[in-house]
Amino acid sequence: xxxxxxxxxxxxxxxxxxxxxxxxxxxxxVLGHIVTDYEDTLLDIARANGLGYVEMIAANRGIDPWxxxxxxxxxxxxxxxxxxxxxxxxxxxxxxxxxxxxGPPGTETVTFPLGVGREGxxxxxxxxxxxRKKERPTWFPPESIREEKPHLPKAVPPGxxxxxxxxxxxxxxxxxxxxxxxxxxxxxxxxxxxxIRLYPEDIARLFELVPIGTPVQVISQAIKIGxxxxxxxxxxxxxxxxxxxxxxxGRIENVDARSRADALFRIKTQxxxxxxxxxxxxxxxxxxxxxxxxxxxxxxRSATPS
Length: 306
Prior knowledge:
This protein is an alpha+beta fold. It has helices at residues 20-23, 42-48, 53-59, 143-148, 200-209, 240-249, 257-271, 280-289, and strands at 27-29, 32-35, 73-76, 79-81, 89-93, 98-102, 110-113, 116-117, 126-135, 167-171, 177-179, 190-192, 196-197, 215-219, 223-228, 231-236, 295-296. The strands form five sheets. It has an eight-stranded mixed beta sheet with strand order 7-6-5-14-9-10-11-13, covered by helices on one side. A three-stranded antiparallel beta sheet has the order 15-16-17. The longest helix is centred in the C-terminal third of the chain and has 15 residues, at 257-271. It is globular. Residues 1-23 have low confidence and may be disordered.
C-alpha cells in the first residue's frame, strides 16, 4: 500500500507565493493509527473515530472487518483533502461517503461520514438548501418504497423503528433530507433509498450547527486533489462499483480507466508550475489502490542525486 505522510491539523503556509492562498487550506484532520483489542471490529472502530465502513476497509485492506484479531495495527483515515467545491454551508460528497460543514468565518470545518443511496436509488447531484429542521421526525414512506415493502404503514412515528432517527434536515428537494438512523451499520455505505444518513451522535451535532437557509452542494468526487504545506496530495476513494466490490470481496479488481484519465488531467492542472515535481509512480499506485488516505505526490527534486 502507498505510504501517506502523517498530517497536522493546522494548515501550513505555502511555499510558492503566487499560489499561497489555494495551497494553504486544502486538507483537514490527522491520519491516525491504533492497535486493536481482541473484541474490536472495524465497524466499532469506525464509529468511535468518526469514520464510515467502506473508508475503514479501504484503508485497511486484507484485515477481516469482523475479526481483525488482537493487537492488529489499524489505520484511521481521519485526514481528508477537501473536495473541490465552494467552501460554504454543507458539501455532501457522495464519492467518498462524507459530508463537510463550512460554518461562519473563523469556525472549524466539521466533517462526518454518511450513508448514501444504493444502486437504483441514487441521491441527486446539484445545489439546494436546508428549508426545514425537525427533531423526532415522523417518516412518511413514499409510494415507491411502499411498493417494495407493502407492509410499511403510511406513517412511522418517532422511536426505535423510525429509519430517520432522532433528527432530520430537509432539502428544498421533495423527499430528500439528511437524517439520523436506527441502523448505524449503514453509515459509510451505499444502502439508503437516496437520503443521506448519519450516525445518531453526528446528526444531533449537525442539527445544532446548521441553520435553516444553509446552502447545500451535493457532489460526487471519489478522487480529491489538494495542497498542504507546499506539497500536493491525492486522496483517492473507491468509485461506487468499486466500493460494492470491496465490500463483497475485500479487493478492487475493476479499474475505471475513464476516472483515472480524468484524475491524471486534474492532477497536472492542479500542480501547475510544480508538474516537474510530480511522482507518477506514486500517483498511479494511489489511483489504483483507492485507500482513501491522502498521499503526497510531489517530491523534492533538488534532493535527488544527479
